[in-house]
Design brief:
This is Beta-galactosidase. This protein is mainly beta. The protein folds into five domains: 302 residues, Alpha-Beta Barrel (TIM Barrel); 157 residues, beta-galactosidase, domain 2 (3-layer Sandwich), CATH 2.102.20.10; 108 residues, Galactose-binding domain-like (Jelly Rolls); 122 residues, Galactose-binding domain-like (Jelly Rolls, Sandwich); 110 residues, Jelly Rolls. It is built from eleven helices and 54 strands. It is globular, with a radius of gyration of 31 Å.
Length: 867
């Protein structure tokens, strides 16, 4: 039912151009699935792709849930009902900026587990997962009256940098054994028996060359065409990929022979609850929004990228027989040196893609017989020129230099930038009466074809061809801008900013609740908790009142630190960190509060211990080590922010002094390998080949075994590295570590609280607090509801008992989605704020989307009237 050759995929023996929308069912409520699928189909997509996160369905070991918002079968059924094909990507690893890359948290409690490997212990749990999820996929395969046309084996495995052929074959064979008989696919997986895809945003020519060389008998596809990007707390807003750039890259895909495109993402959605992950690097914690700046935004509203793709899809659908049966051929076009061209041809016609890499518009021409046909190409764009394509029984398009949404049975639209001209040359199959209104012009060429000189102005024009047999054809000549009238605007309907709040303190008490005692602090998995908050407490004695530097040898989330119940600061550096703490003579209590900000979803060190996992130490020392480096044999000193070019294996050295300390922790970001006093202290790293994330390599290394008293020498491998963002050393005494810890869950909504009317203005101290209020809502208030948590610090919030995510007021996210399917007439919002900041300025907005027409109204006014 579904096959392929080197040109394209075939379904029921017909060639199909796969236009796939990545939509994660787990990033929006079930109540919104129907709408987002309808909009994807209306936008021209014929396929839906989704990852399947193992941890979403097995939150706790052996407890499976495929109901409600987790009803995968229902999602597949909706796709089938709407005649949308499906690409299923069940992993077991999915990345996806999702906690732990889709692995369940409890997997990290299994002793010596080796993720993504052929280790029997790991495969045992994978089999249990596949026994649950593969039968659901199986039921909805195209071969069994469903619409699943491909299933992906693992995910980006070669990018993991750890080849394991038996593992990939085991995953492949496990899918087949459980009934999968549609084609298997991989992206950076390259397992025998699966069609290989690539993931990228630009440089499609390079990707095509790799696929042609390694997989010459397979169709070219991009599994993740990154048309937007995700955001991280404290980072920039990720809106750098413009709609204009998207259109350019889409045409690049066509010119290089790609016939399967999955837009990652098409709809991004939201990381509700604590599902957001952590990507490569130290401070790379994903925001609650996963909007991704793509075609359909977080609130299910089409964007300008939606309009770009909708036009592009119409163009592709029109020429689908051409694109899916095409060969790349030499261009026969002579162009100015500023322009490049790629040409693809098939029995159905051909398209020449003109590429302009200059920062200005260029006007040139193509040859048609003895005539020169003009074209205009905008700066930094690709223009498709269509040639020799037959349209029904009316005519053949000999040359088209404007852009089009396609020529159907009796009408077409040709568009270009406002004020520009394009050309259309037609070979008529029968005589026709031509109505060509000004400012367009036409003439008959020597070969008998009709050449139209089209002007794209503010006033649309329609060219009419009235044929001898009584049929007609309409061609509308418009501007690109006039087509972009369907992007909705938001009309604010209500603004709730005078909420009445109640507050309650979160006592940092370990006297009740689920408390575990241990020698060392327990990370989240060791404690037995997926995410949320953990508190840590221990006691130590001081011989005098003074300030001490406490070193935290291993932390993987920001930490709030309290000494004797007084807030003393927050640790924002991860891996290891230090803080100066006041202590009193005698017994002292050290208390810490930590929110799990997401496990690594992409790295070789997945399964890192979240929270605090090693005992802090008193009287430690911190040494920043980015300065004072020397190339061996020279006297010049360098900073790691600007590493000099080093040929061969010459050493890049730095020394540091150690007096009395016997423990040392190194934390680096951008570091690949470091040697300490001739012994290799391995900094955990990603092995990434050909990926742009190399500069984000991050790891923690205990180098205590190589530490010497006095001078110590570090030798850094900086081959192919231009800068290192962090390189810190933490020294402490083993005997001064603080042992005997209590660990307890905190910030739990269900625990009873002592609510009181909030006197927000009276709060002077930093201390964790809860806030609660109520607001009304009715459907007339709009289909979009957002909350802006102005002037709060960091925490999470709930609406009607559902956790809607983390918040952190360091940007770039400011607004948080409240799904309307969750709302009632009267609603409760509860906020946990780590620092207890007042919610006086919290605002809930409701909006109604509307489309503002750009068509101008002409009004006749009589002379002398007052209108």
């Amino acid at each position: 039912m579904i096959t392929y050759d080197k040109k394209s995929w075939k379904i029921h023996n017909e060639r199909v151009f796969i236009l796939s929308a990545a939509i994660h069912y787990f990033r929006l409520p079930r109540a919104e699935w129907n709408e987002v699928l309808d909009k994807a189909k209306a936008g021209g997509c014929n396929t839906i792709e989704t990852y399947i996160p193992w941890n979403f369905h097995e939150m706790n070991e052996g407890e499976w849930d495929f109901s409600g918002d987790k009803d995968l079968a229902h999602f597949f059924q909706l796709c089938a009902d709407k005649e949308l094909y499906v690409i299923a990507r069940p992993g077991p690893y999915i990345c996806a900026e999702w906690d732990f890359g889709g692995f369940p948290w409890w997997l990290s409690t299994k002793k010596d587990i080796q993720y993504r490997s052929a280790q029997p212990a790991f495969l045992h749990y994978v089999d249990q997962y596949f026994d649950r999820v593969i039968p659901i996929i199986d039921e909805y395969q195209l071969t069994k009256n469903g619409t699943v046309i491909m299933v992906q084996v693992e995910n980006e495995f070669q990018a993991y940098g750890k080849p394991d052929k038996p593992y990939m074959e085991y995953i492949r064979d496990g899918m087949k054994a459980r009934g999968i008989d549609v084609p298997l696919v991989t992206c950076y997986g390259a397992v025998e028996g699966a069609v290989e895809f690539r993931n990228f945003w630009s440089h499609s020519k390079h990707a095509a060359a790799i696929l042609d060389e390694r997989f010459p008998d397979q169709p070219k596809g991009v599994m993740e065409f990154w048309i937007g990007w995700f955001e991280q707390w404290g980072g920039n807003k990720a809106d750098q990929k413009t709609p204009e750039q998207l259109e350019r890259e889409c045409y690049q895909l066509l010119s290089n022979g790609f016939t399967a495109i999955n837009y990652y993402m098409y709809f991004g959605g939201t990381n509700f609850d604590h599902w957001g992950g952590r990507t490569v690097g130290e401070q790379t914690l994903c925001t609650t929004t996963y909007d991704y700046d793509v075609a359909i935004d977080e609130y299910l509203q089409p964007t300008r990228k939606y309009e770009v793709l909708k036009r592009y899809h119409s163009f592709v659908k029109w020429l689908e027989p051409l694109f899916t049966d095409a060969e790349k051929v030499a261009s026969d076009m002579k162009l100015p040196s500023d322009l490049k061209s790629e040409r693809i041809a098939s029995p159905y016609g051909e398209v020449i893609f003109i590429e302009n890499n200059r920062n200005e518009r260029i006007q040139s021409h193509v040859k048609h017989g003895y005539d020169q046909i003009l074209f205009t190409i905008e700066a930094n764009t690709v223009l498709p020129i269509v040639r020799n394509v037959k349209v029904g029984n009316h005519f053949t398009i000999k040359t088209l230099t404007g852009q089009t949404t396609g020529f159907d049975s009796n009408e077409a639209v040709i568009y270009h930038e406002n004020g520009q001209r394009s050309s259309l040359v037609l070979q008529l199959d029968q005589k026709a009466e031509i109505h060509c209104p000004l400012p367009n012009r036409f003439e008959t060429l020597e070969d008998g074809s009709i050449a139209f000189r089209l002007f794209h102005g503010s006033q649309p024009q329609t060219i009419q061809l009235l044929f001898k047999d009584g049929s007609s054809y309409s061609i509308e000549v418009v501007t690109r801008q006039s087509l972009e009238i369907h992007v909705p605007q938001l009309e604010k309907k209500t603004e709730t900013n005078e909420l009445t709040w109640e507050s309650a303190e979160e006592p940092l008490s370990f006297l009740n609740g689920k408390v575990k005692e241990s020698k060392k602090p327990l990370d989240f998995s060791s404690f037995g908790q997926f995410s949320g908050y953990l508190g840590y407490e221990s006691e130590f004695y001081a011989e005098e009142t003074h300030n001490t530097t406490i070193v935290f040898p291993r932390i993987e989330d920001p930490v709030m630190v309290f000494s004797n119940q007084q807030f003393v600061g927050k640790l924002s550096k991860l891996g290891a960190a230090e803080i100066e703490v006041p202590v009193k003579k005698g017994k002292n209590t050290l208390t810490c509060l930590v929110q799990n900000m997401g496990r690594f979803n992409y790295t070789q060190v997945m399964g890192e211990p979240k929270g605090i996992s090693e005992p802090p130490a008193l009287n430690g020392k911190y040494l920043p080590l980015r300065g004072e480096w020397q190339v061996e044999g020279t006297g010049a000193r360098h900073h790691l922010s600007q590493i000099p070019s080093i040929e061969g294996r010459i050493g890049f050295l730095r020394t540091f002094e150690n007096h009395g300390y016997d423990r040392a922790i190194l934390v680096g970001e951008g570091v690949s390998r470091v040697t300490v006093n001739g012994n290799e202290g391995k900094i955990l790293m990603e092995c990434q080949t050909g990926w742009s994330r190399n500069s984000a390599v991050y790891g923690v290394a205990d180098i205590s075994g190589a530490l010497k008293q006095g001078e110590n020498v570090l030798d850094l491998d900086v081959q192919n590295i231009s800068s290192i963002r962090r390189f810190d050393l933490y020294l402490f005494h083993d005997k001064e570590q603080i042992f005997d810890w209590k660990t307890k869950s905190f910030a739990e909504l269900h625990e009873e609280k002592d609510w009181k009317t909030a006197n927000c203005g009276d709060q002077q101290t930093i201390y964790p607090r809860w806030y609660k209020s109520h607001f009304t809502w009715n459907p007339d208030n709009g289909s979009i509801v957002k909350v802006r948590l102005n002037h709060l610090s960091k925490g999470c919030f709930w609406v009607n008992g559902e956790c809607l995510g983390r918040y952190w007021n360091i940007g770039p996210q400011e607004d948080y989605k409240i799904p309307v399917s969750l709302l009632k007439d009267q609603n409760e919002i509860v906020i946990f704020d780590e620092e207890g900041y007042a919610p006086d300025d919290v605002v809930i907005h409701s909006y109604t989307p509307f489309v503002q027409s750009k068509k101008k109204q002409l009004v006749t006014v009589e002379a002398g009237s007052n209108e």
